[in-house]
Amino acid sequence: MTDKSIDQLMRLAPVIPVIVIDRVEDAVPMAEALVAGGLTVLEVTLRTPAALDAITAMKSVKGAIVGAGTVLNPAMLGAAIDAGSEFIVSPGLTDNLGKAAVASGIPFLPGIANAGDIMRGLDLGLERFKFFPAATSGGIPALKALAGPFGQARFCPTGGISAANAPEWLALGPVLCVGGSWVVPSGPLDPARIEALAKEAAALRP
């Protein structure tokens, strides 16, 4: 488990790749390409049977900080930690998952979409959140409005973020990074393409 806080992880690079991986054998070359491109914080979503083994494999890549995304409940949290996850990302926040994640001590980035979600997180001692799904939850105007009453909160917008609109999100003061799947396109693995996309993403911070 990393000794960095979720705040430190969010500040390491402007983009956290959101990875959906189908083949464990793709894990290491994919992680190597992302790290070579300057993106070191890697979120592997628990959406496929290969995800947990991919997390374990990616941990062998020097410089990679590998976490699990799409964590929905305490059981998935435990499985992700057992696989070697160094941080946890969830699409939403429930009391059960939030309490389990806080108790585990692992860096945790829960999803929020409204003021009630943020208040639930603050009650648990959390101040760093994933704004999800960003584009369909009101976009930049909504996040600006939410950030007003919660000055201590910082965000990682995810969902509908692209290379084209990421700079606009990253220009917002409360935004530390964005989550994006565009740096790991679907289809056959192309490490050279991923490295090039990662380099472009790593240079996005305004």
UniProtKB/TrEMBL annotation:
<keyword id="KW-0704">Schiff base</keyword>
<comment type="similarity">
    <text>Belongs to the KHG/KDPG aldolase family.</text>
</comment>
<dbReference type="InterPro" id="IPR013785">
    <property type="entry name" value="Aldolase_TIM"/>
</dbReference>
<dbReference type="GO" id="GO:0008675">
    <property type="term" value="F:2-dehydro-3-deoxy-phosphogluconate aldolase activity"/>
</dbReference>
<dbReference type="InterPro" id="IPR000887">
    <property type="entry name" value="Aldlse_KDPG_KHG"/>
</dbReference>
<comment type="subunit">
    <text>Homotrimer.</text>
</comment>
<dbReference type="InterPro" id="IPR031337">
    <property type="entry name" value="KDPG/KHG_AS_1"/>
</dbReference>
<keyword id="KW-0456">Lyase</keyword>
<keyword id="KW-0119">Carbohydrate metabolism</keyword>
<protein>
    <recommendedName>
        <fullName>2-dehydro-3-deoxy-phosphogluconate aldolase</fullName>
        <ecNumber>4.1.2.14</ecNumber>
    </recommendedName>
</protein>
<dbReference type="InterPro" id="IPR031338">
    <property type="entry name" value="KDPG/KHG_AS_2"/>
</dbReference>
<dbReference type="Pfam" id="PF01081">
    <property type="entry name" value="Aldolase"/>
</dbReference>
<comment type="pathway">
    <text>Carbohydrate acid metabolism; 2-dehydro-3-deoxy-D-gluconate degradation; D-glyceraldehyde 3-phosphate and pyruvate from 2-dehydro-3-deoxy-D-gluconate: step 2/2.</text>
</comment>
